[in-house]
Amino acid sequence: MADIIQLLPDHVANQIAAGEVVQRPASVVKELLENAIDAGADSIKLIVKDAGKTLVQVIDNGKGMSNTDARLSFERHATSKIRNAEDLFQLHTKGFRGEALASIAAIAHVELKTKQEADDVGSCLVIEGSNVVSQEVVVTPTGTSVSVKNLFFNIPARRNFLKSDTVELRHVIDEFHRVALAHPSISFALYNNGSESFNLPVSNYRQRIVNIFGTKTNEKLVPVEEDTEVLKISGFVGKPEFAKKTRGEQYFFVNNRFIKSAYLNHAIASAFEGLLKNGTHASYFLNLTVDPQTIDINIHPTKTEIKFDDEHTLYALLRSAVKHSLGQFNIAPVLDFERDPNLDTPYSFKTTEDASVPKVEVDRSFNPFKEEAASKARAVAYKKEPASSWDGLYVGLESKGNNSKQDFTEVQFESEESTASIFEEDNQVEQKNTTYQLHNKYIVSTIKSGMLVIDQHRAHQRVLYEDFLKNLTIKEAASQQLLFPLQLHFSPQDIAIINQLKDDLEHTGFVFSSVNEESVDITGVPVGVPESEVSIILEQLISDVENEVPDSHFSASDLLAKSMAKSLAIKTGQSLQKDEQEHLVNKLFACKEPNVSPTNRTTFVTMSVDELDKKFI
């Protein structure tokens, strides 16, 4: 029988490896930025076009490469970071496996320009789909510039799986933030479609966070510091009152490398226990420094998940450090039963060195018995005047009573007749009432064939969704003006999303007086929307747009209607009055598609009398 096992060609092997390393343009951004940091650069520029689908370019001023190194850097498993297996447990660099550039070159058009400081000229290398097209001498500044064009040009199926530009750009910005936050000592700049999105100068860690997420972030941060033999923790957590509905601002860095860890995230949530509202998540920006020998980075192709030797110790230290910081800065309540706040020294007296001795003066001529005698004399002298004759109080009352009695009888007759009819009508309405709320979650109603059970949250979502979609389509919506303008603060990238959706939001009833770089001023909201819910609605909307819920095939109006309906719908556990229950049932069956919610989930189920009878057999 003929042999059937054979070695794969290099270009095929590289494309398979690219499937692990390069999932979307953001993956290319991550690998190129990390290479620039490993090259010792202190200034890095990232340029993207069409969310990275057309171009991802990283320019750094690092040490550069020689002609030979430039050619070898695109070979599989070619790396300058490790020499033997033991080096895998002493990693102090970002990249080490030598697969990134080879994988990227297999599925894109790559142009590399690089020059070392000691050389007069550099090298320019052009590769298309793992094939080296040219390598020439070129004049270029010291450092390296890598341009990745037409990603997945030779794998159209992978390109079709990419999301819209808005979503892909969000992933690119997320990777940019992760690298920039881990290295505040390096200046970063991001240019999107020719315009500057971020320009982050060299700064300390707190200032880097503020530069990325906006100046309003500064007042939200609580510093966390802890230094032990096992773990060193530094960074910041957000105050509980600024917790968000989404998990966007949550960053763990281990040895300056961004990681994801549900276990460590649980430690933070445990430290905030009792301080956060239901459904909200605290922000944190924490740097963890551990011995490289105690972690394994090479367990995941993207290197965002790592393995710790002693996770339980890290969990306990992290939880106690965060809890200590929250208590130290009076964020969390402190119980001290022996402390009396009335004995605290006022701030104005804390700097006083010597306390003055109080002077006591005594009136030696004071005689309390003289005053008591005088008061007794006044009490004896006082004589209460007798009340006037009580007979005078009833003079003329008889005639008034007759008139009032006659008037009262007439009034009583009229009121009895009117109220009797009203109560009679109310009793008839109550008899017609056929709805009942079960566990503050379901509305049970009777129908001819049996029983109807409605999920109140999903049903209200459907009602609101069609209302909002109608308003967006006809561009007519009622708006209620606020007594005082509402100012909300967002990060620059969130403001960009609000600007994209501003017209559609105004068609639903929002009125914006101004949209600045880091805040929006709202003077009107849709009718029925509480002022306290506005920030929650916008946060949920921004999250949905970033994560593309439901998908790129739907219009922005549809996405906006779905997001607002989800935020404003009646929640599970909310008690409804009888008229509210009936109104919701009537509105639901007046919808075009009452059977499903906007997210295609069942809104109601029916149970016939026959089905009920079978339950009792």
TrEMBL record:
Residues 434-576 form the MutL C-terminal dimerisation domain. It comes from the Bacteria. One of its GO terms (molecular function) is mismatched DNA binding. Belongs to the DNA mismatch repair MutL/HexB family. This is DNA mismatch repair protein MutL. It comes from Algibacter marinivivus. InterPro entries: DNA_mismatch_repair_CS, DNA_mismatch_repair_MutL, DNA_mismatch_S5_2-like, HATPase_C_sf, MutL/Mlh/PMS, MutL/Mlh/Pms-like, MutL_C, MutL_C_dimsub. Residues 209-327 form the DNA mismatch repair protein S5 domain. Keywords: DNA damage, DNA repair, Endonuclease, Hydrolase, Nuclease. This protein is involved in the repair of mismatches in DNA. It is required for dam-dependent methyl-directed DNA mismatch repair. May act as a 'molecular matchmaker', a protein that promotes the formation of a stable complex between two or more DNA-binding proteins in an ATP-dependent manner without itself being part of a final effector complex. GO terms for cellular component: mismatch repair complex. One of its GO terms (biological process) is mismatch repair.
